[in-house]
Amino acid sequence: MLLDLDLTMRSGQTPHFVWHHSAEEGYSRALNGKTVTLSLSKEKPESNNEKFCNEMLRSEDDLEKICSRISENDVFMRKAVSDFRGLRITKSDAWETAFCFITSANNSIPNIRNSVQKSMAAFGEKNSEGLHEFPSAETISRVPETELRKCSLGFRAKYLLKTASMFCGNDTDFRSKEEAKEFLLSCPGIGEKVAECVCLFGYGFTDSFPVDVWMQRAMKVVYFEEKEPKLKEIYAKADELWGPLKGYAQQYLFYEFMSNKRREHANK
DNA sequence: AGCCAGGGCGCTC
DNA sequence: GAGCGCCATGGC
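Predict the joint structure of the above. Result:
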């Protein structure tokens, strides 16, 4: 399986915020009272819970084929899939993903991770090895706002509380992206962009296409000849170019464009 | 000091 | 339905 584990686990998707990492032990998290481990052994993923990790890493997806599809006749995308070879889209729990991306609003990736980790430490039960579980929606819904705010969540705390009760009060096992999105958009703190993120990283609908400021710039420069496109036009173009795989295209485009700009900035 | 960070909300018009 | 200020917090 084509996989760059470090790139995938630190690419601003849900596992980046939830999983622990150490150079010696690799990646780990608490789950149902146990500890799931994940690391590389001879280029291949190794875990004590292969079922869980295979689902998270979407091991069934043929990344080689996906990358060649989304970069057909596309110089920019060809460079992106080459620069970030082995970057996979991950599939995590919908509630965990919703929590992470509600927290992402007007926030930086290090801060998001900090807040999520603090929330896990404060409200997630410890497993037998002292690792904190991700707190359930039920658990969070019963936390006083003042307590949740101590996790540096700021104005997002009240959204998380309300959305937590939405998640534990409804059947959130959706069959289609449309159903999932309708529910997600009814949750406080979840707008268009975060809804697409949860559809992609939390429900596994790979035709989702989260558009943030980076994606706006990337699409404008690469596919709209510097002319500012409307959101609907971006969606239409992404669908035309990549169809059901536009979630993957988004991740490579986001990463390629952001790191280019980061480099430019660093060189100034 | 001021701006930005994988936005959303509530208010205008 | 598009445009705007505001929202907490941390890093630079």
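Chain A has a mean pLDDT of 95.
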